[in-house]
Fold this protein.
Amino acid sequence: MTVRASTPDRGPAPRPGREPARQRVLRAARQALRVLAVELGTPTEPGTPLLGSVRSPWLRRLPYVVAFGFAVSLLPTSINVLGNDYGLEGGLVGALATAQTVPLLLAVTRPLQAWWVIFAADVLGAVALIGADGVAGRAWPWPPMEIVGYLALMLALSLRERRRTLTAVWLTTGVAGLLSQVFTPDRSNNTWVLMFVLTGVVLMMGATLRERGDAQRKLIEQETISEAERARRTLLEERARIARELHDVVAHHMSVITVQAASAPYRISGLPGEAEEEFGAIAATARESLAEMRRLLGVLRSEEAEQQGGPEKTPQPGIGMLAKLVEGTVRAGVPVELALPEEPVALEPAVDLSAYRIVQEALANVVRHAPGAPTRVSVSVTVAADGARLTVLIVNSAPSAPSAPLETTGTGHGLIGMRERVRLVDGSLDTGPLPDGGFRVAARLPLAPPPPQASPLSTTKDAHSV
């Protein structure tokens, strides 16, 4: 009879490459502990006091006052309760009470480091109270004064640290309370659940307040950036509009140069051949410059101007058309007085156009913001040490009858446009409200704009060309 040895069935062999469940759990636990250690060991902005960015000096001192008040009130209370009620020894009572309350002063600048000290002191205090004579019938593991100090620390911690750190602190507090159940003394009132719930509530409220404040601060910063971008865009739009208006003036002068240079051989008899070639070169260069200028300045034309068929064909206005402008303003309901120089004034096109646009914008502001206000427009020529200048003065008083302005908020184009036009011709501008409720705009423009200053690069280039 043959007896066969039976082999015990060991079950299916583990699949290659598949990790056992126990190892997966251990690896996840190690990873969680690593993350917990990183969050609890990496403070945010250490050394920066709470509310340190607030403008008010009283609010900046408030965290120090509150922390000092908690520390001063909780220190004697802790010594009294731990010594008299719980029956701990005097030296141990002093050490525990100091470690549980004094670090609250550190919480103003380093709340996470203060939490490490206070949390360790609270845990050691709970261990020391296990064998105390007076623990029966009293709170354990966290006495009432420890709960109050811990919640004050949680408020400071929530105003500084990120949510992951706050979650780690909350879970660590809960785990410490849960583990303390193994050593709960007889007839003691367990407070770990109360501590865990109140800690979570305070952390959540503080984090919500901090995030709301951060959101409001970012919103204010974004509004400031948007306002700066809006002002910059307004300035660029005004410069583009001025460039479009001056385009026709420059194009006229370039066209005159082209025609004069091209017609010189026909108008002047007996020119040498070299002179004719020179005039031809001047005419060709002027035509190329005119074409290039039109090509470059064409990008400044708005879509509306392009849809209307290209550049405006009407000539640019000057102070000679101020009477017509004032007449239209009077028809709009604004009484305007106009005073012009008795003798005609010869102005450069840029100065003439700038003077007209300044008066036009000032009268438009009166119509929009002070309808019906009596206005006086004065244009005069003054001679000073720095040369003759054209003075443009527009003054409006407060409206005689109260009336709602057509616009309560402006776009900011008016004053910016005036400043750009004055800067273009090297003039000066003075604007501001008057004591009687009116407004004043005063511009001083040179009769002839200053010649452009050649840069060192262009001077070098001209020297090489010569």
